[in-house]
Amino acid sequence: MAKKATATDAQLVLQLYDLRREAEMRKARNWWFISFWPRSADDFMQVAYAVGSPENNWLRQVSGYWSMAASFVLQGALNADLFLQPAVSGEMFIVFAKVHPFLKELREKAGDPHMFSAIEKVINSSKFGRERLKFMRKRTETMRERLAAKSN
Questions:
Q1: Residue 69: which of 30, 16, 29, 113 has the closest Cα?
Q2: Which residues of 10-34 are buried (b: 16+ CB within 10 A; e: fewer)?
């Protein structure tokens, strides 16, 4: 049986939530969820190589935030079951679902075999996480298709 979440876990979740409310982080999250729909590793790398651009900053800020939060779970500082609740980490699943189809190629092109690995490990650590990812992959693919149809 997994360790039960504690008041300390809840406090850390609230602190993570406060970080998400910071003004620049809100811009970064908005960009990831409204504007950034990479279809390939090249799409992602184009932004990653645009050093100094707002989009590059936002790419790193959001992916870094979720990687950091996932690392808390991996190191035992935050209860995994609590963290994986959609109200806590739902956005992380969307971020990961957007890059999952081309993650292997992305890691190769970036030269970083650990890119998104903390997120991947946390998601894959439970049946719930794997099923949630499957659901979010379908949802993001539907959104990609709608956006493509809208632009044609």
A1: 16
A2: eebbeebeeeeeeeebeebbebbee
Instruction: Encode pLDDT of 40-99 as tens digits.
Output: 999 999 999 999 999 999 999 999 999 999 999 999 999 999 999 999 999 999 999 999
In which residue are the tokens 């999952």 written?
100
54-76 burial code (b ≥16 CB/10 A, e <16): ebebbbebbbebbbebbbbbeee
CB-CB contact of 65 with 55 (8 Å): no
pTM (predicted TM-score)? 0.94
Q: How far is CA 140 from the centre of its chain?
A: 13
